[in-house]
Amino acid sequence: MRMQTRKQLLLATALLMAGSTSLQAQTAWKMKPVAIQSRWAKEVNPQNALTAYPRPQLERKDWQNLNGLWEYAITTADGAAPYNFDGQILVPYPLESALSGVKKTLLPDQRLWYRRRLELNPAAGERTLLHFGAVDWQSKVYLNGKEVGGHTGGYTSFTVDVTDVAKKGENILVLKIYDPSDRGVGPSGKQVLNPANIYYTPSSGIWQTVWLEKVPKDYISGLNMTPDIDKGQLVLTVNAPAGYNVEAVALKDGNAVGKIKGKSGASLSLKLDNPSLWSPGNPFLYDLSVKLLKGNTVVDEVKSYFGMRKVSIAKDDKGVDRIFLNNKPYFNLGTLDQGFWPDGLYTAPTDEALAFDIKAIKAMGFNTIRKHIKVEPDRWYYWADKLGMLVWQDMVSPNHGLPEGAKAAFEQQCKETLAQLHNYPCITTWVLFNEKWGQFDQQRLTEWIKRSDPSRLINGHSGEYLYVNEKLRSPSPNAYVSADLTDVHSYPNPMNAIKMPGKARVLGEFGGIGVFIPDHQWNMNTAWGYIQEKPGALKSKYAIMNQHLQLLEKQGLSASIYTQPFDVEGEQNGLLTYDREVVKIPFAEIRKIHAPLNKDMGTLPAVAAADADVTEPSAIYSAMLQEYIDGKKEPEFLRKLAMMAVQAGDKDGAAMAGDDYFALMKPPYSEDDLRYVMQVTGSTSDTGFAIIRDNMDAIDKAMGARQSTVKMMNLIYQDLIAPSVPETNANPDWSAIYTAVKPYGAPGEEIYLRARTIYLLNKQDKEGFKPVAREYLDKYGQFVKLDEKKKIEAFMN
């Protein structure tokens, strides 16, 4: 730690201890406005922020939840620890989320600080552990002005032993966070600073539960559990200091059905007579009690659970390599779950909301979830175990451009993910890479994961072959090396993966049918999907896709993953809306569609969501337009009319209704008004464009870094550049284009330089390219994605 930072922290702590700063007043928090929100958001308040025990497989009674109101501040990268903080934030909701009460974007050249007061009562012979479920991305932890630990990696938990610094009474906890999102070297998943299409709003800082735990001086730090149904046993290792005895008891319905004694750190075999097997149709879980003993004295005790199941690749009765569950062929009928929420982003509003997603997916008749480019809180996997859902767990992909340090950061995150999630029976498959996103050393890493966890399948590369509209986008000469599966992505219609000896064939992604549901949109400007359908046509289109899955299954397909269960921000290709309020095909009907491929549904959970209105959206808009013509001009009606016009493709109607609404707006504009302007403005000639241009700082404060700039750039390109560059061999007058975009300032210049750079790159005009590309990178290189920057620089050299 720099000496200045250390002194600043100590002084700030002293001021707090003297009572000069008020911490955690319970009246200041309020959820920020958001386009749509889930039904659970209204249940959240500072007193009940995710109160459930956060680690169900290693549970103790003596713990303290630290979720609630903390203080936060944002400083420059080299800024000292702040004396006065900016306000309050509701932990564990990420900084950018509405539920945090802050809703600000953290930029790469900034640092996020957290602070709160702790009341501690340490006792002799006990350790005080401070646990963090996840903090994105790099954190340093200080207690009473002293650095006590930290962590790098946004998706896995870490623990800091604060015993030596903790004191009786009041303690001051401070965190310093660095999170460059997609501009850094660490895995960031689908988070980007400029969200659009299949990439979404970032989640910076604390986004899972923070909690304190008292443990004995020597204690059980973890369990490693691997079921072996062929031998009727659980292979168990109790992680604790060497030399202790351990005792583990398996319980079924409260009765002991297996017991083992041994030594800490040793591999133990807990035998079970006629074990009950875990599957989606019968998700039976055993309770487990584990004690750490010194003689006959119990030193430490934890509660846990486990499930007995086996996943493997084997030949069916026709000699076809298939996925087997519990020694029988088992078709993995799955869906691609991103794990985003409109109100909490990476963090579900409540534990009930967290469980709802799995319940809804099960109620639709799926038996598998591919958890896509995200690691969830432990309780998500607990609910998957309890409800009965197979999980394909993606590793969080590295920065696609693989800057220096990205490979090491990715491998470390993978290592922590494997260790943290090993015990959950729901996880049957590890997915290493996705569609060449940051792919490297595939064979080495695939074999490493297989050695690390031979009890599960390894999908070395999901979508190494990617087809869109039956055209192959990414052929691969060394596909699926050392993996258990061959995996193809095919949009929109399903197809089979290639056949290779000893490997099951799976369809890692397909579908992506975009369906617009009025009044349930994060972004009214887009209904992104690989294809578009009206609500009334979705059921038949989806049914036909699933009938083709049945045909492919007969040809050897072992699994399918549909994109996706829920809309996410600009993507509207979910089977439920982003707010989880409307199911686009009724639950009973979609289960019927799935039934031929999922014969193991078991007990179905009760879930509530409205069925989609299958009325033609353009008919709804036409009726509203007639009301407008007949004189209806109320503000809320005009807002909705403009947004419906965007979805109906009526640009003139959208501009007309938008202009009428804008005329009713008065500056200074509210965040809600600015978001609306950003949604409905579709041209540089719209009144909304001038509002965006004149309120860029306010828009970026409300919506995130560069949102106004990117919006203006897109409209400038659409209206003033694209018409002059209809194809690569066109010969545009770049001087005239520059004259047209120059009045729009930096956004006009940036999109002009970007468009001209890409045009010359595609044309392979190296002589003309160099000066334009150099100016582009010199002025705006910080906003260019690393992989694109590499292509530009490679052509320059």
TrEMBL record:
GO terms for molecular function: hydrolase activity, hydrolyzing O-glycosyl compounds. The keyword Flavoprotein does not apply. It comes from Chitinophaga arvensicola. Residues 109-183 form the Beta-mannosidase-like galactose-binding domain. Transmembrane segments: none annotated. Pfam families: Glyco_hydro_2, Glyco_hydro_2_C, Glyco_hydro_2_N2. Residues 352-462 form the Glycoside hydrolase family 2 catalytic domain. This is Glycosyl hydrolases family 2, TIM barrel domain. The lineage of its organism: Bacteria, Pseudomonadati, Bacteroidota, Chitinophagia, Chitinophagales. Residues 253-309 form the Glycoside hydrolase family 2 immunoglobulin-like beta-sandwich domain. Belongs to the glycosyl hydrolase 2 family. SUPFAM superfamilies: (Trans)glycosidases, beta-Galactosidase/glucuronidase domain, Galactose-binding domain-like. Residues 1-25 form the signal peptide.
